[in-house]
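Quick check before the chapter quiz. The format below is the same one you will see on the exam, so make sure you can read both the input and the output lines.
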Amino acid sequence: MNRATFWSERLLVAMPAAHALAEREWVQWYDLRNETFLLTASDPGPESRDMVLGRLSAFGTRPKIKMHGVSRESIMSVLGGGLGVTITCEGAAGAQYPDVVLREVHGSHGLCLMSYSGYWRKDNTNPALRHFLAYVRSRYSLTLIFLECAFLLADRS
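Here is the expected output.
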């Protein structure tokens, strides 16, 4: 199995603009221990739930998490009403929602990042995969030399 880390994005918490933490430049996981998290039931909600549970259980609390069968955009659009907070990545920072602010989440070692990776079989010679990896390499300036070696070896077999 081949694997490559493609890019990382800052982890953000979206909250009502009137929230007490909204005045801060960034928040720590500890600051979120008593919050109600609104998450999507679909991707990436379950992974976000696991992350929140893992991070906040270290403080001896069981976070309040409500899973909803709606899109991330639907959850973002109701946050301004003060119903809770949600976790999202930097890629969502381009959209603006009424009365909602985004703040970086920090852990004990600083800024929290969400890494995106890809996995594929070593014997996969699909041209679409090759084009995708070339795009990621050029777009994100990744040095994926081992990928080129893997494809060269696959071409020889």
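If your answer matched, good. The two ends are 17 Å apart (CA to CA).
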